[in-house]
Amino acid sequence: MPAIELSGVAKSYGGGDHAVRNLDLVVPDGAFMCLLGPSGCGKTTTLRMIAGLEQPSAGTIAVGGRVLDSVEQGVYVPPEKRGMGLVFQSYALWPHLSVRENVEFGLRMRKVPAPERRSRAEAALKMVHVFDAMDRYPSQLSGGQQQRVALARMLAVDPEVLLLDEPLSNLDARLRLEMRAELKRIHEESGATIVFVTHDQLEALTMATHVAVMNQGELQQLAPPMEMYARPANRFVAEFVGSPAMAIVDAGPAPGGLAASLLAHVQGHDRPAAFGIRPEALHLGTPPPPGAWSGPATVEAVLPAGASWTVRLRVLDTELFAVTHTPVEAAPGDTVTCWTDQLHLFDAAGLRLPALDDVAARA
Predict the structure, then answer these.
(1) Which terminus of the chain, N or C, has less C-beta within 10 A?
(2) Confidence band (pLDDT; 50, 70, 90) for 362?
């Protein structure tokens, strides 16, 4: 399977507004790449440019070394000649065709002989586990089954690249979880290069081999999902990736309260303009390990969620949340010790500074 390379790609719709700005992005051969970001960040526009449904205003798009789009070179390869499969947010199944006929449709357009069409369609339906429903019509299927049929239709034509535009957003929570596992299995079995657009950071973290976070048309960070979670490149990525969101504590020119306590803890290192603390990295009660920051906190609320507990705390002058998977014995109004050994540090421009553990690792 080919790698996808975007070099200096930009897209504007007139008036000087850019949906995508100077995007340099490489999707490695066989990767499962998630384009992640809020609505309007340019991720779907990027996917549509890769597919050929939109033409870039500047830059070059190449797949496997073959230039598909280049404003400078005057090259444009139409969508049907790019060897890609695209699944939209809406399933776009033909209601008057059976499941098998829907899956065969792309092969029929390519004039594939009938016996081969049938065998390839059946193989694709088996891969997505809807083979037993191949003689039904879309109206007779659940939303999850319809999504599987849309995937099978794409897989049957054996595209070089699979492009998925928020295909799970119309499903309920249980079906989304099931389809995440299904897409990950399909990727592992097929080895295809996949580009997946989503605004759901949980989908990106659970499925992708690489995540590209975008904001206002610009790439913020490209990294494996857990590396991005552990070492966000800037404040935007830090606050966008993770649920509940990372708390940011600003350290102004005359800091007091929690900011002053954190600054005293990192004394001797680069002075940060802000600190980040993930709720799941904020611990209660147990003795802190050497090198950890700790301080007093007042419990304001305990919110049970089945397998976990979220605790709202007042730490000096700042409200923080802690997430724990062990029962919380403290009650609202109690004073407890909280601590963390995973502080994230950011400079005045919002860029990541080396954290204490990063400095220790290099020493």
Answers:
(1) C
(2) very low
